Please model this.
Amino acid sequence: MYAKFFGLRHEPFSIAPDPRYLFMSAQHREALAHLLYGLRGGGGFVLLTGEIGAGKTTVCRCFLERVPRRCNVAYIFNPKQTVEELLGSICDEFRIPRAEGEARSAKQHVDALNDFLLRTHAVGQNNVLVIDEAQNLSADVLEQLRLLTNLETAERKLLQIILIGQPELRDMLGRPGLEQLAQRVIARYHLSALSAKETAKYIHHRLIVAGLTRAAPFDRGAVQRIHALSRGVPRRINLLCDRALLGAYAQGVAIVDAAIVDAAAREVLQPRGPRRVRRRRSASHRWRLPAAIALGAVLGAALFAVANWAYDASARAKAPAPAAAPASAAASVAASASAPAAASVPAAAASPAKK
Model:
């Protein structure tokens, strides 16, 4: 849509893994060299890993274009299969014939594959199995692949296996249960993100391949902003550049600046910061209800204790004091007790006088 407006023959920032647009940075050249080494490595596994969008599949497509004619390649791009399904897919990729609709067991697939490898080896051909998105392989399938590397002659292994996947693949091979497979990895390489300088060269390279014959449509600030937002990941660079060029075309602007890049980023890149904030907020919300309940319980207990103390103090204030005998009553009781005694004494004294 915008190619002619910017003097281009093609749209330069498609996310399709077109080998023509492969930007051979130093690390991409080294990654390709590792894959080519696998053609003559004499068996075992070659491991290529990288972040999502780092260019692994593009490097693989470039590798497939450089495979010699006397090398048979089986390319598996959907490895999320059972052992029997994957073995059947490998046989199909190597064009190993079988009757239509025939259901084979894992052993029958391995036997057919072994026969094919021996026949091709006898005529001087190599065989390479390439599995993309290998981080999706199950442990059972990985163990079966290890067993396939046991197919050999007295001189060399008959099958070279190249595993391409995300960083999780390295973690998988680090598990104790896959130690035997890990020991058969003869070469491994990890694709990292592009530096700021490499990002600028990457953008310029793709524009040149697309037919650019005039000044680049991105100013320096835009290129720096693209690198910051994409973090040097080629696929994210492609998304940003493509949408930025479309936005500039819609505005009738021939040069893309940082503001246009920011607008493009809001459309095509998933925001990361706000999502983390929302996760933190949601986490705090999960703790608010229990905290409120606990605080309410503490306050309720404190109020109950205060109310109970106040009630006891009030009850003690209203209770009557213990009854005490009045002084006058005590005196009267004493007087009444002594009166008869006093009366009896004169009576006793007077009785002898009468005698």
